Amino acid sequence: MSEKNPSSDTKEIMDERPELGVPETEGAAAAPSSGVLIVYPTRWLILALFVVYSMSNAFQWIQYSIINNIIVKYYDVKSTMVDWTSMLYMVTYIPLIFPASWYLEKKGLRKAVLIGSCGTMIGSWVKVASVARDRWWVTFLGQCITAVSQIFILGIPARLAAVWFGPTQVSTACAIGVFGNQLGVALGFLLPPAIVPDSDDMDEVATGLAIMFYSVAGLTTVLFVTIIFVFKESPPTPPSTAALSQEDSGSYFHGVVRLMKNPGYVLLLLSYGINVGAFYAISTLLNQVVLGHFPGETKNAGRIGLLIVLAGMLGSVVCGFILDKTAKFKLVTMTIYVMSMVFMLGYTFIFHLEKLWLVFVTAGLLGFFMTGYLPVGFEFAAELTYPEAEGTSSGLLNASAQFFGIFCTMADGQLLESFGDTAANLLLVVVLLVGSIMTGCIKEELRRQAAHKKASPSAIQPQV
Q: What is the CA radius of gyration of the chain?
């Protein structure tokens, strides 16, 4: 990559922090050789582009499951097959995350994002060809392609934040990166029930599906072209001491072995997978659970899912901000986990009151903590495992989430069919309790924070 002059007008020199007594540095004095760390305004454009790209893929994860009853009628398939359109994202991720994480570490952000964006676009256009009622396997193929493409999305927020953002913004940036995935899921809950009518007229359903498929395909095409010309690999100079001092860890697989020998990370790996896996199960089966208590409320099922994710987006940003200000990683993680379990218990029994507004309130509180946990887990992992590549640690976290997501979704689906939603949701309460205990056992060892503190004051010009 060609060198850029750090004095160019594209850079943003980190402002003076009076308590450090650091003189403001401008122009050539900010060159890497001087030890001054610089952040660039371009970082926000790169992050925003990734957010929209992540959103376009995550939308497609839940777009079938949230209108499960409509898809079953239209394509004449079993509800289990529709559930598999969601579980495909989990099943494909587990074996493919290892080569994807290796590729991200060795080839960089730009190439990984380009591949993922291209795959998302191709899968979206395959679905356009699946509107006919006898083309279920075509739509399933399109979903397979988009599912595989997500391996170049889920592990990127922590890596992108570390590469582009300074030490006082890295957790917030990671939270915003995860925000894109959550926004896509939120729209996946909201738009399909609004676009595809729950009608006995199959021509109306076909029209709705065509509108949805063409809209997504158009968006993903524009995104792919934009990423080609706009998305950059990294800034000209590192934004933090940790990024400056982070060395190539050598073999990717040796890095994985080192992570597996880190007891704190292994506990986080399991507890993160349990939490996110429970969320996947709730999302996949939401349509069936809501319609079981409130027949005909397909749109409200989508709105409940929307609220869960929107509340989680707020939780992500709030928690990321708190982490940046306090660096209390274990305290924040433990609080979020326990509150997720408490509100999961409330969510389990609130349906029996047959009050839809109470379901909305409880689901929103559950979402604030459960989905707000996503970026917190990424950042805690980065702290526990520094200087290992963030893409590797977060990629394994996501693999754990997919594994537990498959387990929770399949087990919950069986319990839902055989014993009802109370038994299904109580299973999730139990696994969240186990995850809370695991989280409490993690020894807080903040290695990345320690690397930041090793920097001499004259080497840091903090940003606002």
A: 22
Residue 202 buriedness (CB in 10 A; 0-12 / 13-18 / 19+):
exposed
- Reported as a single tens digit per residue, the pLDDT across 214-270 is 999 999 999 999 999 999 988 877 776 655 555 455 566 777 888 888 898 999 999
CA triple 153-157-161, angle to 5 deg: 145
Long-range contacts, 424-429 (Cβ 8 Å, 24+)? 424/281, 424/285, 424/289, 425/289, 425/344, 425/347, 425/348, 426/348, 428/278, 428/281, 428/282, 428/344, 428/348, 429/341, 429/344, 429/345, 429/348
Dist CA 106 CA 250 (whole Å): 10
The answer to whether 178 and 312 have CB atoms below 8 angstroms apart is no
Look at residues 121, 159, 102, 173 and name the one whose alpha carbon lies nearest to residue 320. 173
The CA-atom distances, in angstroms, between 31 and each of 6, 14, 114, 265 are: 6, 13, 30, 36
- Give the least confident one: 29-33, 149-153, 188-192, 267-271: 29-33
Is residue 94 within 8 Å of 399, Cβ to Cβ?
yes
With contact defined as beta carbons under 8 Å apart, do 57 and 116 qualify?
Answer: yes
Q: Which amino acid belongs to residue 288?
A: Q
Its pTM stands at: 0.73
Distance, C-alpha 12 to centroid of its chain: 28
Q: What's the CA gap between 110 and 231, in Å, rounded?
A: 6
Closest residue by Cα to residue 333 from 317, 354, 319, 353: 319
E strand or H helix at 38: strand 38-39
Please compute, for residue 331, the number of CA atoms within 13 A of its CA located in the half-sphere on the CB side: 5
CA atoms within 13 A on the CB side of 123: 25
Peptide bond into 263 cis (omega under 30): no
Residue 462 burial (CB count, 10 A): 17
C-beta of residue 318 within 8 angstroms of C-beta of residue 372:
yes
Question: Which tokens go with 237?
Answer: 């100079």
Helix (H, G, I), strand (E, B) or coil at 12: strand
pLDDT digits (tens, 9 = 90+) for 183-200: 898 899 889 999 999 999
Give the Cα-Cα-Cα angle 379, 380, 383 (nearest 5 degrees). Answer: 90
Q: State the DSSP H helix or E strand holding residue 99, giving kind and residue range, or none if neither.
A: helix 79-107
**CA-to-CA distance for 392 and 410, rounded, in angstroms?**
27
In three-state secondary structure terms, 217 is: helix
Is residue 138 within 8 A of residue 12, CB to CB? The reply is no
